[in-house]
Amino acid sequence: MNAKLFLAAMIVLVSTAAFSNGPGPRIAVVNQKNASTFKVIYEGSEAGKVKMTIFDKNDNVVFAETTKTAGGFIRNVNFEGMNPGEYTIEIADKDGKQAQKVTYAKKTSVQNVQISKLASNESKYLLSVACTGTQEQISVRIFDGANNLVHTESRTINGNFGLVYNLADVAGVPTFEVADNTGAIRTIRY
Predict the structure, then answer these.
(1) CA distance 20 to 34
(2) Least CB-packed of 38, 77, 98, 162 within 10 Å?
(3) Class for domain 110-189, per CATH?
(4) Cα Rg, the chain, nearest whole Å
(5) What is the mean pLDDT of each run of 10 residues along the chain (190 residues)?
């Protein structure tokens, strides 16, 4: 698979070089299997210093590095831990600059969130989270009937998850907010 990806990237570089009208670096940015990793492929006209700069959507520099190269390189860039959004990867050498935009979006393995009132006890609620992956971070916030925060917690879950909450001391109808690691919030008012 990596050989096919490399071959496809090299075809892009060769076709870019053949059809480009001006001097400058030639780059290709290829998304990898992991949604947070991109492969940056650079080809320059000769050996020298090359600067790679990554900008966020507001044109703030989030990463910059200058390296010496023998005319090209292939480099993995990992956005894990960054905020989801659009980024620009810019390569600059003595012949000029070229940039390519990429979109980084976190993935979640949380598929479904449900709240069930237990029939045996009017004040107990079952939170169940269907999760296809491992090591997922969720946060749970519970509000009372007047929308006051009465409980908050963060948990690392491993696969499907369930927990019973005893809300006997909570006035009114409770509201649950469950957020995953992407920031997606599911609000359930029972």
Answers:
(1) 31
(2) 162
(3) mainly beta
(4) 24
(5) 50 44 71 80 88 94 92 89 88 90 79 82 87 83 94 90 92 90 79
